[in-house]
Structures are given as C-alpha cells and as structure tokens.
Design goal:
Blueprint: H1 2-15, H2 19-37, H3 43-47, H4 54-72, H5 80-92, H6 97-120, H7 127-139, H8 144-151, H9 153-169, H10 174-186, H11 192-215, H12 222-234, H13 239-259, E1 280-294, E2 297-310, E3 313-317, E4 323-326, E5 330-336, E6 339-344, E7 350-354, H14 360-373, H15 376-386, H16 390-399, E8 413-417, E9 432-436, H17 437-446
Antiparallel strand pairs: 1-2, 1-7, 2-3, 3-4, 5-6, 6-7, 8-9
Amino acid sequence: MAFGKWVKQCFESVVDPDKENEVAELTQLLQAGIKERKRSFVLAEVLQDRVYKQRHLDQARNGIYQRYLARAWADGRVQESELEILSWVSKCLDIPPQTLRAINLETARPKFAEALAKAMDDGIISDLEAAELTEIARAGGLSLPNFVEKFFHIEGEQFLRGIFAAAIADDHSAVDVLEQLVATAAKLGLSRKVVVEAIRPQAVQYIEHVLADAKEDDILTSQEESTIRQLIETFELPIAVQVYIDEELRELRLLTDIKNGKLPSIAAPPGVNLKAGELMHYHGDAVWQFLRLLKSGPDITEHPGVLAITDSRLIFRSLTRSGAFGFGTIVAHDSSRGVIEVQRQAKPVQRFICHDQSRIPAAIFLSALRMANQTLTSQDDKRRSRHIPRDIRQRVWQRYSGRCAECNAGEYLEFDHIVPVAKGGSNSDVNVQLLCRNCNLKKSDKI
C-alpha cells in the first residue's frame, strides 16, 4: 500500500508539478475568504478571474471541509449547531452532494464502529446507546437503519447470532430469547425479519438438538411435539427443513405408538400363510445373514428375501432359504436401526438386515416380542437402562458442537452408546457420542 502511494506521488510530481503549490494557495484563499466574508461568502467572487485546475480546487475545498468536520468530531459527537455550520461550509464551497456524502460517511464510520462495539459489549443496547448511535448516523448523513444496513450488516448479524447461541447454551427459552433480540435489534433499526434471518442457522441447530433429545428414548411426548412446532413457526424455517422435521416427527409418533403397544396391523401379502388369528405387523425386504458354525470356522451366507413380523413369530422367505422363528423359541435378541438379531437355544445368532433402515422394524419386533412374552415391565426397565440422562446429553451435544462425531453432519443426529448397553456400555458421557443416521448405520454394520 505504501509503495503504491509512493508511485502515485512520483507520477503526479512529473505530470502535475504545480499541484501541491496551487492546492495550498487555493486553500489559503478560500479559508481567508470564509473568515473575512462569513455569511456573505460567495465562491465565484473569491476566486474571481484566477486560473486554476478544477481538480486542485476540488482537493482544496474538500480539505477545508474535512478540517471543519474533524473539529466538530473532536469531542466524539457532532452537535446540532455544528451540523448547521458544516452544512453552511459545504454550500459556501459548493461541494457536490455525492462528494459531501462520501466524506461524511467515511468520517462517521469509525466513530460508529467504536460506539457499536461498546454498545454490544454487554449484549444489550440501552436507549442511551441507541440515541448515541442514531446521532452518529445522522452526522454521517443517514438514518440509523440505513447506516447499519450499509456498513455494519455483517457485524450486526454476528452480534445477534452470538447472543442467541450463548443464551440457548445457558438453557434459556429460544422463543423468549428471540423476542429479546427483536427488541434489541429494533434499537438498531433492524426489523424482526432481519433478526430471524440472521439467527436462522443457530435456530435450526437448536431445533435439531431438541429433536435429538426427543428421539433419544423413541417416545414423543405432547410437550416435545408442541415445543418443536412452536419453534418451527416462530423461526420461519425453510420448507426443506420443515419437511425434514415433519418426517422425523411422523416416525417418532409411530415409534411412540409402537412402544406403547399400538402396533400397526397390515393384511398378509400373497404367499404368506398365517395361523388362525395371527396378526401381521410388518412386511418388507430384508437380507438374512445366516451364520453356520463349521469345523473350519464360522461361515456367513446372505439370503435376500422378505421379512414378516407377526404377533407371535418372525417369518423369512426367499428363493434360497426360508424359515420361521417363534417368539417362544428365542432366548436372546438385540436390535438397532434396521437390524434385528435373534438367537435360539443351542443355535448361533441370526441377523436380519431390513431394507427399511429406520427404527420402525426393530421397534415393532421388540414390542411384539414383549407383548407375546408378557414382559412389558422388565422390557421397560431395560429401556430405562438405555436412557441417557438429560445432563449427559447436554454435555455430549456441546462437546461435539451439535455435529456428527464422524462426518460433521448437522442433521439426522442421534445420541449413540459407543459401547452398546447390551455389551456392558454405560450411560456416562465418555460412552455417549453424537452420530448422524448414516454413521450410526455404518457403526451398526460393524458391530
């Protein structure tokens, strides 16, 4: 920058050697005229028949105005009387309006930045601070909203986002925080729409957090759904985000019914023979990972086919292998998203990987098994043992900054036990991580 300025000065000294002297002479002439003639000052009369270059005159009168402007700003603010003097000087010197606006704005901008930073320091803009900002903006020739929009839009948005993120991290109501921000932003001349748009990324992440909390136990309470609906409406989320959340809530409502024993009943498709009075709850494509224990070692073969879950058994059929597992013969079982594992007495573990990778198939199986075995109480105790306490979920969310531990995704997030509870894992924060749906599925495939 300094080198460029030096080059410019060298160039001007060659092509315009009289510039410095003529600007100084014009400045002295105009200043003397203002001092002597005061209100009777007329630029053309002061210049008379003097020969000069227009650019030299422009520099001289701009320099004079800037000196008056600096004097007005000396105490950090421009009084009404000083504004009148500045207006008179600019008219006397016949400074073009566009040039005048540029000078005023350039001078007021650093003053405004300093005052705005001070006002933002405690997260609240008082009426006194708002008045000071309005005064500075006016001295710059703009209204407060226009000044903020022109020069400090980015800083204002960052300020609003920072306050919102800090407030919800401290467990304040997001809706209440928004209303406080709207009131604060109004003092900067910013509309509610601007505030909502500014904090929308943080709002989406916050709603994702609330949704992940609701999904943790596969139970959607009326309070949780009401809260999420209120957040969607309050923060005016984009349609794509609303559709995503609606899909998650629909699945959660279905899971809630299943957990409460309200299993879906569907008609048996052609080719599936049910016993008298047997009810079918699920039917979908799946792969049976059939494990055989051979002398040479374990051998796994995969059989693509269709899995059905009834109120008394699992039924699998394919072109290569078919079978039925009565619930009464199952001595051990485990399940995760889209995966059902069962073990019968003296038999190796068999795994069914459903094409539907949601939590629905496993939830239907577990609830149907509980109802058939009349073990609702013990299964509920087991579910509670998997439940991650809220304070643990809060610490885990903050540790991963609301992002997947594996791929950094910010959607479809779930709290996951690093070591599954079925294998001795605890609910402590060191054994809980945040995973997106895809990474959780990949992990399930490896276990």
